[in-house]
Design brief:
The structure holds two protein chains of two kinds. Chain A is α/β, with parallel strands linked by helices. Chain A has four helices and six strands; from the N terminus they run ββαββαβαβα. In chain B, a hairpin with a 5-residue loop joins strand 24 and strand 25. Classes of the chains: A alpha/beta, B alpha+beta. At the A-B interface, helix 2 and helix 3 of A face helix 29, helix 30 and helix 31 of B.
């Protein structure tokens, strides 16, 4: 399965917003990871917001993805912020498992951007 | 083999003792031995040879077991030239090679053998990663390659030899088609066996070394050793043996010919080879038989036509020869009778006169007949009151009927009955019928009736005579047919009277019929069309009529007493009225004024006459107005008779003008001189008036005959031209019904018939009532009657040539018909083949209905390569295939069969639609081209989801339960065979529950003169009218095809999904990350159908997703073809889902997120069981509806 990824660079100069659409499973996470890291390198953003609000499915491979992104970005001093709106699949998933080292989690994009801007 | 390898003494080889072999060699040997494919491998510096059982059996033959452990270049010394470089490449570069159908000459059977192998060489590595040897996987394809080659030759031979029409063409075709395969037939020479039993070379260049002794040994394999000049054919060495075969035509005893065929020196002469040569000989023999039969038919038809012409000529000549002498008997007898005084003398003269009259009547009838036959009897038709004329003619018989004591009743309506008739011919009709009635009637009456009936004038001659038996009635109007065993007044008769009546009636566009009851009497009815015109003068009987009466009187017992009546009749006849209808012009040239006046008076009673005084004046008169005959004195001033003749004959315009010379010079020499000068006749002075008139009349008749002959020649030419046109059209007709229709129509116009029909023998012929009067058989090769050409209502304008033209046309038609029948048979074979290649039934599915329909095209020439297929792939998935091989007939049907099998195989192997198409496309390349459109879908019958790819086929149609339709238009790519290396794309779609999927071939939507969109629109409209059950829908779609005829064949495949239903769901997927999406999608639909709400469903999906991810990611050693199976079902309000794989999970997860996966599952599932077994791991998740972990 191919994945679809939307990037948004306009909201804040310092932030890159990545919004994966569709299902996130182990078939697509390697591709998302590569695409996101590539975009971060091109935009030289200080902050990456991964908005999981539009993911129709996400499982532990998504957590693995966040974990890897967090580790990769931390080395370059880029901050990872995850958006998991209430009622979303991502929120449900994050509610089920304990997590460390996957970046800051916010309930909306606005909150995430606010965090970036601060 | 394992044992042999174990027991082999390896110490002497560079590989050393087996127990010291490196692991890499052991593994390689194990692979070879364990394989059921034929394989060999070579290892080490000398490329030591290993192989498995299959290879020993298939390829090595007598080299086994010798080959084991030897150097590869020793084992395969004979082909090392070919394979050595390939092996060198593999060893030095590590790159594998691939050869398909490579010709190799192996010496494994005790001789150099032609073999074909498809094989690949791949490198084998040792522990250090260096190339240490090579592995060969090989499939021998000798049988296939040679089999196909022979089949191609047989096909070519059948096509070429079957088309030959002469022996010469046939053997040229045989030579040509056999020369295309100089491998199996290094040489082949055909011989025919002549009447003397000796073979005679029929092929070009039959060689000298094939002597009589050699040929006489047939059928046998002969040694060619010691003979020189043997052609090698496609090989370097000439054949060592040849097979001499007899060509047996089953229709004839003994061999019709011989075939000597060189045997491929590189193949054993086995059963297949013998069979092949037998088929070649059989094909040649049967073609020879049919060519000869056709030849014989042609000769027979020509001979018959020739005989018919000769007969007609004979009749014309004989009759005409009789006419002049008869005139010379009748004239003087009449004169003498008038002057005779002695009673005894009168009686004798009466006998002479009567018999001469009888003879004249007979001769006139015969002549009339031959004129009709020659097509020169153009009726001189003019409006005539046939009622009055008939009454006059019939009444002439009153003298005879009165004497015989029978009544003669003549009935006619008031007023005239006008018909356009040739008066002389009408006279013949009436007189023949009345005279015939008189002949068979002894008491009662003869009733002659003339009346109007609709558009016809009807003549009925009825009698109360002996009658005619029903058996004889049928053939009554046949020529020379005489009714026997019936009481009649005389047994004399030519048997042509009634036949003449029929011919004459027909010439008038009319008919004659006979009804009869034995003992009661007969009635003859003649019909001719009425005419709306005033009669052209009154018609009067001709002098010929007297002959009929005289003959009738002669039949009476007291014949002598009839003299008086005869004289009375003769006196009542106007002189020369037989020339009333066409008065000829006579030019008289004589210098003696008295004689000129006498001749003028004498001849003017019969003809228009002009008289001149000499040859010069005669020439001038001829140039001014051409007379029909010149009567010239031989001796004249200025230009004498001979000079006049010379002038006339020199001018093409008058060279045929009849000239009679009159001369006083007696003696035979004079006559000879006159005739030698070109005179038509020669008359000595003094001559009797009757003789002169007879001679003039005879010469006029002769001239008319000549002209008629010229007209007939012109008509013949026209007929031949028409025939040529007809032949072209007949040969253009493709199908049997077309040929029949064209032949009938052409025959009808050629001979001017009212109706014509060509029928096949197998269809039967119409009954006689339908009025067909002529039947021409259509005879095919070998004398088999294929059918017949029937004609009715012929006008006779075709003349005698029509007969031969019809014969020719029938010959052309029969040949064409034979081909068309052959074609029809091929069509049937193709259709049968096609049907046998289509699945007999479609598989039964659990969650859907499947229905298929195949209808062959109505056009006989088209059997397409349409096909469909449905293959269950397990776990509720079914592959649906629909395709169309471009082309027609047997070839397309068999290509279709190959494609179908290939598609089926790839799908069963587990390839998806696009990879399958890609592989089939490559396959078609190697099959040598061709085109096919294919649409391929894999449908999950549970979820309705489908994956499809399309190679140029019309798009499948999805119909929703609400009638909404959409086309599966994505993923369209070029047809198979259109281009190599096409990347086919897959697209996804779904059939909603209660909806249907329609696959079809273009025959369902394509119509001539109609854009395809219209057809697609029609299909969508027909489908959207509630999809319903698959079978019903398929039938409805076919029924919606407009018009009754489908030019192309049609295949339709319909899958309809049942309405939502509870039940279990089984999903079987390859253990790949990409399977997760489809798995979730199907589970999602199932959960939805089972009534789980979205958040609940999301939890279950997540748990199953984690379990499946585990199943895909972790099972490792050994790695079997892993498949994840998910089984979901409802148990009460609990969803129970098990996910199984074929591996073993690590007790401790290797990756941290896997551990998370376990945690997630445990967190979500109400109950989770993990069952680890040696065969795999089963995770079972229970979820109670309505319960959700917060």
């Amino acid at each position: 399965m191919s994945h679809e990824l939307q990037f948004d660079t306009d909201r804040l100069p310092a932030a890159l917003i990545a919004r994966p659409l569709g299902d996130i499973d182990m078939a697509v996470t390697p591709g998302i990871q590569a695409d996101v890291l590539g975009a971060v390198a091109r935009h030289a953003a200080g902050c990456l917001v991964v908005d999981l609000g539009a993911a129709s499915y996400i499982d532990s491979s998504g957590i693995e993805l966040l974990f890897r992104l967090h580790a990769a970005l931390a080395a370059d001093g880029v901050e990872l912020i995850v958006v998991a709106p209430d009622g979303s699949n991502a929120a449900r998933l994050l509610g089920l498992v304990a997590m460390n080292d996957i970046g800051e989690v916010r309930r909306s994009l606005a909150e995430a951007l606010h965090r970036c801007g601060s | 083999m394992s044992q042999r390898i174990a027991e082999h003494d390896w110490a002497d080889t560079p590989l050393g003792p087996a127990d010291q072999w490196p692991q890499s060699l052991r593994t390689a040997v194990r692979i070879v031995l364990g394989s059921r494919f034929a394989m060999w491998m070579a290892w080490g510096p000398e490329l030591t040879f290993f192989y498995n059982d299959k290879y020993a059996a298939d390829t090595l033959a007598i080299k086994h077991p010798w080959a084991l452990g030897r150097r590869a270049d020793e084992v395969w010394a004979e082909i090392w030239e070919d394979i050595g470089p390939r092996i060198e490449t593999v060893i030095s570069t590590g790159t594998a090679t691939w050869d398909e159908g490579l010709l190799l000459f192996l010496e494994r059977s005790g001789y150099r053998e032609e073999t074909y192998h498809t094989f690949s060489y791949s490198p084998l590595w040792d522990e250090d990663g260096n190339t240490a040897g090579m592995l060969c996987v090989v499939a021998e394809e000798t049988e296939r390659v040679i089999g196909e080659r022979r089949l191609a030759t047989l096909r070519e031979l059948a096509a070429d030899a079957g088309a030959a029409t002469t022996e010469r063409d046939l053997f040229a075709a045989v030579d040509a088609s056999l020369s295309t395969n100089r491998f199996d037939l290094p040489f082949a020479f055909a011989y025919t066996i002549g009447e003397d039993g000796r073979p005679e070379g029929a092929s070009a260049d039959a060689p000298g070394w094939a002597d009589a002794e050699l040929l006489a040994s047939a059928p046998a394999v002969v040694e060619l050793a010691g003979r020189s000049g043997i052609p090698p054919g496609g090989w370097d060495d000439p054949p060592r043996q040849a097979l001499v075969l007899e060509l047996i035509d089953p229709a004839r005893p003994g061999p019709a010919g011989l075939l000597i065929a060189g045997l491929n020196p590189y193949r054993g002469f086995d059963g297949a080879y013998r069979g092949f040569l037998g088929l070649v000989a059989g094909q040649i023999a049967s073609s020879l038989g049919s060519v000869r039969a056709r030849q014989a038919d042609r000769e027979r038809a020509e001979a018959l036509a020739e005989l018919d012409r000769a007969k007609t000529d004979f009749f014309s000549n004989v009759s005409h020869e009789f006419r002049t002498p008869l005139s010379l008997i009748l004239g003087p007898a009449e004169d003498a009778l008038a002057e005779a005084e002695d009673d005894e003398q009168v009686e004798r003269l009466n006998v002479v006169f009567r018999n001469a009259l009888r003879l004249q009547k007979l001769v006139n009838n015969l002549l009339e007949f031959s004129r009709i036959e020659a097509g020169s009897a153009e009726p001189m038709r003019e409006p005539t009151d046939v009622a009055a004329f008939t009454a006059d003619l019939a009444s002439m018989f009153r003298a005879a009927t009165d004497r015989a004591g029978i009544a003669l009743v003549v009935e006619r309506p008031d007023g005239p009955v006008i018909a356009r008739v040739d008066r002389e011919m009408w006279e013949r009709i009436v007189l023949n019928l009345v005279s015939n009635a008189f002949k068979f009637t002894f008491e009662g009456e003869i009733r002659v009736t003339l009346r109007r009936d609709g558009a016809d004038a009807v003549l009925v001659v009825a009698d109360t005579g002996s009658g005619i038996a029903a058996d004889d009635l049928a053939s009554l109007f046949e020529r020379f047919k005489r009714v026997r065993g019936v009481r009649s007044r005389t047994h004399e008769g030519s048997g042509i009277g009634l036949a003449l009546v029929e011919e004459l009636a027909r010439l008038h566009g009319g008919s004659v019929e006979a009804e009869s009851e034995p003992g009661k009497g007969s009635a003859f009815t003649v019909r001719v069309p009425l005419e709306d015109a005033a009669p052209a003068g009154a018609a009067t009987p001709t002098s010929g009529a007297a002959a009929y009466l005289e003959e009738a009187l002669r039949w009476l017992p007291d014949a002598e007493a009839s003299v008086g009546e005869l004289a009375a009749v003769g006196a009542g006849l106007p002189a020369g009225d037989d020339d009333l209808t066409a008065r000829s012009r006579i030019l008289i040239a004589d210098d003696n004024a008295d004689l000129r006046d006498y001749l003028e008076r004498l001849l003017a009673r019969h003809w228009d006459v002009e008289a001149v005084r000499d040859g010069r004046a005669a020439l001038a008169a001829v140039r001014e107005r051409r007379p029909d005959l010149i009567l010239s004195d031989a001796m004249m001033p200025e230009l004498d008779g001979f000079g006049l003749l010379a002038e006339l004959r020199a001018d093409p315009g008058t060279s045929q003008l009849p000239v009679i010379l009159l001369s006083a010079r007696a003696g035979e020499e004079a006559a000879v001189e006159g005739l030698a000068a070109g005179a038509d006749d020669y008359l000595l002075k003094p001559f009797s008036s009757r003789e002169l008139i007879a001679r003039v009349r005879a010469n006029l008749d002769l001239a008319e005959l000549r002209q008629a002959a010229a007209r007939a020649t012109a008509r013949h030419a026209r007929l031949l031209r028409d025939l040529a046109d007809a032949a072209v059209e007949v040969n253009r007709a493709g199908t049997v019904p077309e040929v029949l229709a064209v032949v009938a129509e052409r025959a009808r116009t050629l001979v001017g018939a009212e109706r014509a029909l060509a029928v096949l023998e197998r269809d039967g012929e119409p009954s006689e009532e339908e009025g067909f009067t002529r039947r021409v058989p259509l005879t095919g090769g070998g004398g088999r009657e294929l059918g017949a050409l029937l004609l009715g209502g012929e006008s006779g304008t075709g003349g005698v040539e029509a007969e031969s033209v019809l014969t020719q046309l029938a010959l052309v038609a029969a040949t064409r018909l034979e081909n068309a029948l052959l074609y029809e048979r091929e069509h049937r074979v193709a259709e049968t083949l096609q049907r046998s290649l289509l699945p007999e039934s479609v598989p039964q599915l659990d969650r859907a209905e499947l229905a298929a329909l195949y209808l062959p095209g109505s056009d006989e020439a088209s059997v397409g390569g349409d096909w469909y297929d449905a293959i269950t792939l397990g776990e509720g998935r079914v592959a649906l295939v629909i395709g169309d091989v471009v082309g027609r007939g047997v070839k397309a049907a068999s290509a279709m069969g190959q494609l179908r099998n290939a598609v089926r195989a790839y799908l069963l192997e587990g390839y998806g639609p696009a990879p399958t198409l890609e592989r089939v496309n490559r396959l078609l390349d190697t099959l040598g081209g061709g085109f096919a459109t294919i649409s391929l879908l894999v449908v999950d019958t549970g979820s309705g989801e489908l994956v499809y790819a399309n190679a140029g086929h019309p798009p499948p149609l999805v119909v929703g339960p609400d009638g909404a339709t959409h086309w599966l238009e994505a993923g369209l790519a070029p047809p198979i065979g259109a281009a190599s290396g096409v990347a086919y794309r897959e697209a996804q779609d779904a059939i909603p529950e209660g909806g249907a999927l329609v696959l079809y071939t273009d025959g369902l939507v394509e119509r001539r003169n109609e854009p395809i969109d219209a057809g697609l629109g029609r299909l969508a409209a027909a489908a959207s009218d509630s999809p319903g059950h698959a079978g019903t829908l398929a039938s409805r779609l076919v029924a919606a095809i407009p018009g009754s005829a489908r030019p192309d064949d049609v295949a339709v495949l319909v899958l309809s999904r049942r309405e939502a239903a509870g039940g279990s769901l089984t999903v079987r997927l390859p253990a790949e990350a990409t399977s997760l999406g489809p798995l979730r999608e199907r589970l999602r639909r199932w959960l939805d159908a089972e009534g789980l709400d979205r958040t609940e469903a999301a939890d279950v999906l997540l748990a199953v997703g984690e379990a499946a991810s585990n199943a895909i990611e972790h099972p490792l050693e050994p790695a079997p073809a892993a498949i994840v199976v998910t089984l979901a079902r409802m148990e009460g309000d609990t969803v129970r889902i098990s996910i199984r794989d074929h591996g073993r999970w690590d007790e401790q997860p290797s990756a941290p997120h896997r551990g998370r996966g376990m945690n997630i599952m445990q967190a979500i599932a109400g109950e989770l069981a993990i069952d680890r077994t040696p065969e795999g791991t089963i995770v079972t998740i229970h979820h109670r509806k309505g319960e959700r972990v917060a």
